[in-house]
Predict the structure.
Amino acid sequence: MNGQRATRGGRKARLAQRAAKPVIDPCPPGQIGGMYKPLTDDEMRRIYSTALDLLKNLGMGEVPARLRANLIAVGATDNGSGRMLFPKALVEDAIDKAAKSFILHGRDDSRSIEVGGDRVHFGTGGAAVQTLDLDTGIYRPSTLRDLHDFTRLQDTLANVSWFTRCCVATDVPDNFDLDINTAFALVKNTTKPTATSFSLASHVAPIVEMLDIAAGGPGAFSQRPFMKAHISPVISPMRYGEDAVDVVYECIRHNIPMSCITAAQAGATAPATLAGFLAQSLAETLASLVMVHAIQPGFPMVFSNWPLVVDLRTGAFSGGSGETAVLNAASAQLSNWLGLVSGVASSMTDAKAIDAQYGMEKGITSLAAALSGANLIYESSGMTASLLGASFEAFVLDDEMHSHTYRTLRGIEVNDSNLGYKAICDAVLGEGHFLGGAHTLEAMERDYFYPALADRDDPKSWSDKGAVDAWSRARIRVREILGAEMPDYLDRKSEKEICRRFNVL
């Protein structure tokens, strides 16, 4: 009897350990990518050479006067027709002096991440104007309340390494109030690294003032910036956008790291051929890098070369296609080959519902981007409906998908212990199986990820439990998270001061 009680107690302890967070996380963020290489070395050189030719001979149009002066000072030339030409030496000097890695700070330093090299991190992005309603399952306009709830939700998800606002609060019509309240939602509800956008350059300084209050005083934010900016200073094809360039200057002045995003669309604002698209998109993102180099060499910039695809039959954006998968993987490969901090956009399903299309499109595009070694994978959590929508259920489902992806990237560790020669001999000559053996138990948590939402029951057990699908399980989990008491990341004094100075809604 004593022996039986000991056996039952040991099993209970093992079950409790299994339910708890593993001592060794089998698939943490920041795994190493780079195994998938859709381009050969020769193909990369040809694409890069074409990009350099475009910058040298065609150059960039609609260059704001202040930027024009800075570019000429570092070696660019005016072709006399209003286009700035960038010689090869200037572009390669910008690449050589670019920041090759840097820290994306969280307000909680333990949540900061280093970006660059061959480490892969999933995060968010997007400007969804519609939210998939938890109660009705139907899309409706996104609200400021949604943004607060999305921020609170992702704060609990281990595989969202940084949070960019994923939706636009359509119930805040004033652009300045929108920018202020978007930034406030981020600092109130998470201490992860964050990112936002600025409608106008004049909005940057007031938001920095608000971030200083959250950080502890004047100048505190710029000393350790925990929010980066998403900016699209280049408009395809091959010209600058003055308002966005003005934002770049302000962000550099306030030491705000930037993702300079090129978002050309194949067959619309860039060639329909994939190789031609990559050449133009690379040239345009290099133009952003040269711009930053001309203002302040080496300033932290994510080289965000985001190839976007349209359905050429209809002109509709197609974020979940095989072309999207291979183009973003190739973009990351090119950026990493140049030694730059790479950013791409993947996991942007065109599906409206959480269905088979959703899973297929998110799975192939996010895995391809991760395997290619993209440092930062934007739009990877929660986005649906070709970036028009965001979903609470999608956030938790995508977080679990990312764990599987990180496990794939981690690969297989081959050593004497893992090869298991002795364990094989013991099983063959002993009980004839590996169940319960020490070798199996050691590997159980170290080598395997156990999903919380995916169903692995047999059909009868699944039916007996109510035949619940993944969408329903995810909805239940979201309600549990949002219904729980959440951390308050702003002290009352700071929040009161922010509300006194700004129109916090």
Residues 60 and 239 are 5 Å apart (CA to CA). The longest strand covers residues 227-231.
